[in-house]
Structure formats: C-alpha cells, structure tokens
C-alpha cells in the first residue's frame, strides 16, 4: 500500500452518524468523564493511549452498555504492565448468561432457518424458560462451576440454550459442529473432558440429511468423562438407543419446571468458553476465554464497531465450530434478536441468505470474503432481487476481503451500506480491526483498529511502521485475552503462542499494513504463510488479489517451496468449469501478477488442481499444502473439510526440478 488515499466507497450521512451507538458512547464519555473527541481516529487514539485511558474506556463501556453484575469492584485493571498477567475488573462478579437474558416478552430472541427446510422462532420468555429447565437438568446431573459441557450441534436454538444454561451455572461451554468426524471430535472434547454432551441426531447440508448419531455413539464410547448424552432431535429419527447413557433432550428438558434462573455470580475472569485452534499443525489448542472479557469485548464490537442497536436483528453465517458463533450469540446482550442459519449458504442457491435478510428484517449481515467472491464470480445481483433496506451493515471475515470484493458488495448487494471487513479470531474471540460506523469505507481497507486496543504494525526490528507491511501486534492488555490454554499448567504454550516474539506485546501472526493517510488496515494473510523469495516477504493475499481477477480462475492457493537456500513461489489454481491451464493462461496469470503486484511476486510455477483444501470454517490451508509439497506429514487432517484434496499437491513432478 502506498501512502495514497484509496477510492472512498461509502460515507455515512450526518443523520446516520448522529443515530449510532458510537455517537451515543462519545456523548456519554463527554458527559460522564469530560473526554471530548471529535471523530473515530481521535477516539481510538485516546482510548489506548495510557493505562488511565484504557481504564476509563472500559469503565465507560460497562456503564454505557448496562452490564449486570453482583459487584464491579473499584479496580479496573491489575498488573496492567504485564503481558501475560494483566487482569481486568479483578474484583468483579457477574454472570455471562444473565447479561444475555435481560430482555423479556414475546418478541423474537432467536430466529432459526435450517436451509430452506426449517423455520422456527423463540421469544425472549420462551428462551428464558428453556434455559432455566436445561440449567436445572444440568444441575441435577452434577454440573458445577468449572465443569465442562460440550455441544456437538448445528447452529440451532438448542446450542444457544445449552450454552446459556451452562454459563448460568458458571460452567464452561465448548462446541464442535457436526461436520467433524469422530477423531476430530475426540481431538477436541477428549482434551477437555466434558461431563455432559449434547449432540444432534442428524442435520441438513446442501439439501441432504447427514446423520450424526453413529458418530455420537462412537465418540461417547471413547469419552469416559461424559456421564450423560442428550440427543437433540432435528433431521433424524431422534432415537438415542444406540448411544450409551443417552436420552432425548426434549423429553429430559420437560422433566424440569423452569422458573426464575439462579445465575451463579462468577469472577470476571472465570472460564466461559473453550475454543479450539484450527489444529492444522497439530492437536488443536484449547483456548480458554473468560466470561467478563468475552462479554465486554462483544458489547464493544457489537454496539460501537458494528452499530448493533436495541431491536436490531443480527446475523452471521457460521457454524458453532467457529468463533463467529460465540460472537454472534452475544448480540442478545445488546438487546438484538439473533438470526441463526444452519447449512450451506448455497442451499438451494445463493439467494437463501438474502431471502432470510428480506423476510426477517436483518440489520447486520455477516458473511465471509469467500461468499462475497462467489457472488461476484457468479454474477449474482442480490440488490436487484431482494429488498435489503433493513440491512445497515455487512461484515466479512474468514480471509482478507480483497478490493474487488468491496466492489461486489457496493455494486451487486447494496450501495448505501457500511461494509465492515473484520479480523481477529479464535485467540481473542473477537477482532483487532473492524468497522467504524461513523467513518468512510475505503476500497480494499478495513476501516479501523478496534477501540481500546493498542494495535500496531511492527517491522522485523520491532519498530512501528506505516504504509509498510509487518506484524500485527497489540501493545497493551485487553479484556478478551485468553485466560489460559487448557492443559498448559505452567503457561508455556500460552506464552509461546502470543508473547514470545515481542516483549510485553501480543503478537497476532497476521501480516498487515496500516495506512498513514486513512488509518485503515490491510491484512495480507497469516504471517506464518508469508512467502519469502529472495528474502522479500510477500503476503499470500497480495497474489490472490491479482490471480482472482482472471475469470478463468475460481480460486488459488500459493506457497513458498524451499529450493536450495532460497524459496520459490508456487501457485496452484482451481479453474472454473470449461477452462484449461494452457500456456497462454499461465502467461496471463504471471503477467497479471507482475503488473498488479511486482515482478518479485510472480510465481516460478503455476499448477492446476481440481480442488483447494480448507478448514471446516472455510479457510484455505496454505501450511498444510506447504507440508505436503515438502513431503512432510500433515499432522491433523481431521481439521479439514476436504482432506482428500491434499493428494493433488503430493509428489508433483513439476516441483521436482
Ligand atoms: C474475526 C475473525 O478473524 C474470524 C476469523 O477469520 O477466524
């Protein structure tokens, strides 16, 4: 990125700015704390400048969002100068579920679509009662604070109910989507030893029923910690008889009377979730997130970065095996309705999510860069076919949204919309960089660094740089840092994951750049996948951006292959139907990369593959492909949605010379 202003694609009107939660928060800061800032850049700068400001920010956010707690305590931070080690609200006691169950009445708490087959909705009162019953059932089962409850469930209301019931007891919730096979589930739940398992009988994907009960039966046999399994009846026959110690969840739940929930008040940092790293380089890491940190981080991201308002209807396309599920469900705490969708986003075709947006009055539409690319490549024009007037914000994550993806959103979906490309991930159950509802959107740029996060980009010497690629870091503590890794008693794995590179600084592992002109951010890929031909670091997204401009290319994956003491860039392309990788196409691909990026980016080899391997949450796996090309074992193929695709990269003659 040069120090130039990219094209501005959208700017909020003055009325819109005035109506945002963020403007309300800025007023609150002014009235309560005398902090006066004119715009987002000034607010961000103030919010992370010193310990005092960070503390004021989080205190103000707590009040502004109306956090419910038994006690907040006087201290906002302890050991602030230590990373790891710093703590937020060390004297506070609260319950996460209580904060998400504040609304009452017959309005929608959850709306659920299971592809085009199932539509259900649950009111706030009904949700509360179901959570109450399940919490009573879990209590009878002996679940106590700190115990683990696991869910092998689709993205359906029961998953939220189980999570809320677990959290109401101060226990720890962990989930895995039902597309994982037995080994994938055991690699995850085997490490955390849940006491109770909730699992689905079958689910829908791409119009077909996919049975899960046989996997559940196999998993339960190898998970001795599980004392009881509750089978959720969804797309199967609901028969639990083949599973040890299993019962149907609906019948079990009905045995309990419900009524007021006794929310156990827990320390701010008590574990709420265990999330799993993708596990493509070994056993998945079990990342433990705290109740208070998750709550505050999501309140901030929803209300201030995404403008979620009371009465909104918030949607993110996700499974419950991805942290965007945890992110989405917290929207209840901002008094929004949560819209859940389970299945393929193309079932029966690309229209389904836009139909949901129109029929359900969606206000925030969350998706992935890959979905936006697919719409663009397929020439879909959702804005012409659907009334998307309710949708104010469109979010994208999963991989960097390239500049062309911004065009698809504004040309094909909606012109008056805040496009928030967001990035962070499982490690922080949230974002480092995200939207700014009161500022402009520039083509190809993430709008802003998130409030109260001292995000920067460092060069290899640990110096802050602008308009230059480097490592994304965070220089001060923040509430949603993980509490710890499970089974890491001395914290060594935790330290090595984030704090070993720069002293007292979070090293995130994204290769990124901050513009000195707009303050926007571009992410060029994961830093462990960067290419290094001739000693120059190149982010993989720099290459994807060029290659995917060619209509023949459906997708691509690029790696650095070690040859002698150097590295060469090898690009694999998956072509759209009807095309072949002719010499002419290879020349045009190289030409596009050379003119669009630089001669250094041009791959030494361009090879065709019929499929690109990806994780179950849709991320292409450059490191796994790199391993295969170098003849190394891919450690955890269970993490992949299509592990068989790896064989197309193995032993390729073209890569022997
Ligand atoms: C917010 C994110 O960064 C989500 C992801 O891509 O994992």
TrEMBL record:
<keyword id="KW-0547">Nucleotide-binding</keyword>
<dbReference type="InterPro" id="IPR000873">
    <property type="entry name" value="AMP-dep_synth/lig_dom"/>
</dbReference>
<dbReference type="GO" id="GO:0030729">
    <property type="term" value="F:acetoacetate-CoA ligase activity"/>
</dbReference>
<keyword id="KW-0436">Ligase</keyword>
<dbReference type="InterPro" id="IPR045851">
    <property type="entry name" value="AMP-bd_C_sf"/>
</dbReference>
<keyword id="KW-0067">ATP-binding</keyword>
<dbReference type="InterPro" id="IPR042099">
    <property type="entry name" value="ANL_N_sf"/>
</dbReference>
<dbReference type="InterPro" id="IPR005914">
    <property type="entry name" value="Acac_CoA_synth"/>
</dbReference>
<dbReference type="Pfam" id="PF00501">
    <property type="entry name" value="AMP-binding"/>
</dbReference>
<dbReference type="InterPro" id="IPR020845">
    <property type="entry name" value="AMP-binding_CS"/>
</dbReference>
<feature type="domain" description="AMP-dependent synthetase/ligase">
    <location>
        <begin position="106"/>
        <end position="477"/>
    </location>
</feature>
<comment type="similarity">
    <text>Belongs to the ATP-dependent AMP-binding enzyme family.</text>
</comment>
<dbReference type="InterPro" id="IPR025110">
    <property type="entry name" value="AMP-bd_C"/>
</dbReference>
<protein>
    <submittedName>
        <fullName>Acetoacetate--CoA ligase</fullName>
    </submittedName>
</protein>
<feature type="domain" description="AMP-binding enzyme C-terminal">
    <location>
        <begin position="549"/>
        <end position="619"/>
    </location>
</feature>
<dbReference type="GO" id="GO:0006629">
    <property type="term" value="P:lipid metabolic process"/>
</dbReference>
<dbReference type="GO" id="GO:0005524">
    <property type="term" value="F:ATP binding"/>
</dbReference>
<dbReference type="Pfam" id="PF13193">
    <property type="entry name" value="AMP-binding_C"/>
</dbReference>
């Amino acid at each position: 990125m040069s120090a130039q202003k990219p094209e501005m694609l959208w700017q909020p009107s003055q009325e819109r700015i005035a109506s945002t939660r963020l403007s309300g928060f800025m007023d609150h800061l002014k009235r309560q704390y005398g902090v006066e800032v004119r715009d987002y850049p000034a607010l961000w700068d103030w919010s992370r400048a010193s310990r005092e400001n960070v503390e004021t920010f989080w205190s103000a956010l707590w009040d502004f969002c109306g956090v419910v707690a038994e006690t907040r305590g006087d201290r906002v931070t302890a050991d602030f100068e230590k990373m790891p080690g710093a703590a937020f609200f060390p004297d506070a006691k609260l319950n996460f579920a209580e904060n998400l169950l504040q609304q009452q009445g017959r309005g929608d708490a959850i709306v659920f679509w299971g592809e085009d087959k199932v539509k259900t909705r649950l009111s706030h009162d009904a949700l509360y009662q179901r959570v109450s019953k399940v919490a009573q059932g879990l209590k009878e089962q002996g679940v106590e604070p700190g115990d683990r409850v696991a869910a092998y469930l689709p993205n359906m209301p029961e998953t939220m109910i189980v999570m809320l019931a677990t959290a109401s007891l101060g226990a720890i919730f962990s989930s895995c989507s039902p597309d994982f096979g037995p080994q994938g589930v055991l690699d995850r739940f085997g490490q955390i030893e849940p006491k109770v398992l909730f699992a689905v009988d079958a689910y829908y994907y791409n119009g077909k029923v996919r049975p899960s009960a046989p996997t559940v039966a196999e998993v339960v046999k190898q998970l001795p910690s599980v004392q009881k399994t509750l089978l959720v009846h969804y797309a199967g026959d609901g028969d639990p008889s083949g599973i040890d110690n299993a019962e149907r969840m609906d019948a079990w739940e009905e045995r309990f009377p419900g009524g007021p929930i006794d929310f156990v008040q827990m320390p701010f940092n008590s574990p709420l979730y265990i999330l799993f790293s993708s596990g493509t380089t070994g056993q998945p890491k079990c990342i433990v997130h705290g109740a208070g940190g998750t709550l505050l981080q999501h309140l901030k991201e929803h209300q201030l970065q995404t403008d979620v308002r009371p009465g909104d209807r918030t949607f993110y396309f996700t499974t419950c095996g991805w942290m965007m599920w945890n992110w989405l469900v917290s929207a209840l705490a901002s008094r929004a309705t949560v819209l859940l969708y389970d299945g393929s986003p193309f079932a029966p075709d690309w229209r389904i999510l836009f139909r949901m947006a129109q029929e359900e009055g969606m206000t925030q539409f969350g998706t992935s860069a890959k979905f936006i690319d697919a719409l663009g490549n397929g020439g879909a024009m959702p804005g012409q076919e659907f009334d998307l007037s309710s949708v104010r914000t469109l979010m994208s994550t999963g991989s960097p949204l390239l500049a062309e993806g911004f065009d698809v959103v504004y040309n094909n979906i909606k012109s008056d919309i805040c496009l928030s490309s967001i990035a962070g991930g499982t490690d922080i159950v949230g974002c480092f960089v995200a939207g700014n509802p009161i500022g402009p959107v520039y083509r190809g740029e993430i709008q802003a660094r998130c409030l109260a996060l001292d995000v920067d980009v460092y060069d290899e010497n640990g110096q802050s740089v602008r308009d230059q690629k480097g490592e994304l870091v965070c220089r001060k503590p923040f509430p949603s840092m993980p509490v710890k890794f499970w089974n890491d008693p001395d914290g060594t794995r935790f330290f090595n994951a984030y704090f070993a590179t720069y002293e007292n600084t979070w090293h995130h592992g994204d290769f990124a750049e901050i513009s000195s002109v707009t303050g926007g951010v571009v992410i060029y890929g994961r830093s462990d996948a960067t290419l290094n031909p001739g000693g120059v670091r190149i982010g993989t997204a720099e290459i994807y951006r060029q290659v995917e401009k060619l209509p023949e290319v459906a997708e691509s994956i690029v790696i650095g292959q070690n040859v002698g003491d150097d590295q060469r860039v090898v690009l694999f392309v998956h072509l759209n139907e009807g095309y072949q990788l002719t010499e002419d196409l290879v020349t045009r691909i190289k030409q596009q990369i050379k003119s669009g990026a630089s001669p250094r980016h041009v791959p030494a080899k361009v090879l065709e593959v019929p499929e690109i391997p990806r994780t179950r949450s849709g991320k292409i796996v450059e490191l796994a492909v790199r391993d295969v090309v170098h003849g190394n074992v891919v450690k955890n193929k269970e993490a992949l949605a299509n592990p068989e695709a790896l064989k197309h990269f193995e032993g390729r003659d073209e890569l022997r010379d």
